[in-house]
Amino acid sequence: MGSLSTPGWRQLNVGVIGGGIGGMSVAIALRRSGHLVTIYERADFAGEVGASVSCAANGTRWLHEWGVDVAKGDPVVLKSLINRDWKTGEPVSVYSLDDYEKRWGYVYNMFHRQYMHAMLKDCALQEEGEGVPAKLVVNHKCEDIDLEKGTIKFANGVTVHHDLIVGSDGIGSAVRGVLGIHPAKRPADSSCLHANVKTEDAVKLGLVDYSQDSALEYWGGQEGKWDKIVLSPCNGGKLLSYYCFFPREKGDYSTQQWGTEDRPVEELLAPFPELDAQVKAHLAIGIEIQPWRLWVHDPYPYMHKNTTCLLGDAGHPMMPHQSQGACMAIEDAAALGILFNKQNFKGDVAECLDVYTKVRLPRVTRVQAAAAKAAYNINERIGFSANKDIATYKVEDEKKKLTIEEMNAYDMYKDIDEELAKARGQEYKDKYLHGLPIGLELPNGVVIGA
Asked: Domain residues of the chain, as ranges?
């Protein structure tokens, strides 16, 4: 980040609404850039619900840049992506990650969501590290924001003023409504039940030890159907996190919240009579069986107004099928950290947020669309989209498929430099276009800048 200040740089008092993964990430990024950050959490503690969460190289790089102690998150470093036959369990398509770190500079981590959150929270709040430690305030539910004055009114009667307000309050964002964005959304065509399986329990029963694969594994998803099982190992392989997708007509959970009473195991198994016997036996010992609401949101038209912006699911909810939700929130946080650092920020918050929207919206919209396609065709998923020699390979449009190069060769510093130059009427001379090197040929045949 450096220490030389641009004329006009000033330390901001930042209010972050929502203390999840996105909220903690942006607190770290803005703390590192020299600002004072207060995180407001609506509940009486800041935590996360759910199980596994993917963090590919485009997310992991920022954790390292910010000095996050990644080992605290007890991740599994993924070695491959495996798509298996629905009935037999035999591999259909494998994408090796053996050279992943060498190619992209960072590993592909799989975290348990609660562990990842604790890791980020520690980094945001601890005394150690660059910048003033962020403050966490609980039991503060956002009720309204005066966008002109930069004041937040909370349900407990407290009102506060901030120079910059970041709405990272998730899929049901209150800040989004204040900004005048009212989502066109509809229930997804698929439903999802989640279950955890302890590796130790599976091994005791003589079942396959999937933790040894260190892989993100999928059953199904090849036939244009909604039936798909996704397995992600976390907690160093001690826990296997299963996401089980099936047509909504077999069970509609679109209005049910995570964290209620566990569903019975019979309900989890019912949609999958012909599933591979090994993974079915795993699901039969599943615990903490919970419904996951799936709603499709059309892209939002903007991500900020005045000095208030959106981040993560509040600004661009997406289906989980590219495993990029957390990474996109981390990238949002990184963008704000760069824009408000001592090189780029000249004192005009609205100018930087305008560039934030111009940098982030095209990228997140692209991933949103690709995630929706991958919901029913696993060949559209990053990684598998490179396996064109598979007999069952088929994508909607080869030129439009999302590639791993787009995600990991992306240079956010260059993207921001380009947009800031435009905003300030300056010439941009680097040979990059929207953060990708001009001349880079993607596996789908697209050449950047051609």
From this structure: 13-77+106-182+298-377+402-437
Q: What angle do CA 159, 139, 67 make, to 5 degrees?
A: 95
Query: CA 185, CA 205: separation in Å to the nearest integer?
Result: 43
What 439-443 contacts at long range (C-beta under 8 Å, 24+ apart), as own/partner pairs, is 440/405, 440/409, 442/403, 442/405, 442/406, 443/385, 443/386, 443/403, 443/405
Q: Which two tokens stand for residue 4?
A: 């030389």
Q: What is the pTM (predicted TM-score) of this model?
A: 0.96
CB neighbour list of residue 43: distance below 8 Å, 6 or more residues apart: 138, 139
Select from 3.40.50.10490, 1.20.120.80, 3.20.20.70, 3.50.50.60 the CATH code of 13-77+106-182+298-377+402-437.
3.50.50.60
Tens of pLDDT along 268-317?
A: 999 999 999 999 999 999 999 999 888 888 899 999 999 999 999 999 99
Q: Cα(416)–Cα(288) distance, rounded to whole angstroms?
A: 42
CB distance 186 to 286 below 8 Å: no
**Which residues fall within 8 angstroms of residue 135, CB to CB, at 6 or more apart?**
37, 38, 39, 125
Asked whether 84 and 217 are in contact (CB, 8 A), the reply is: yes
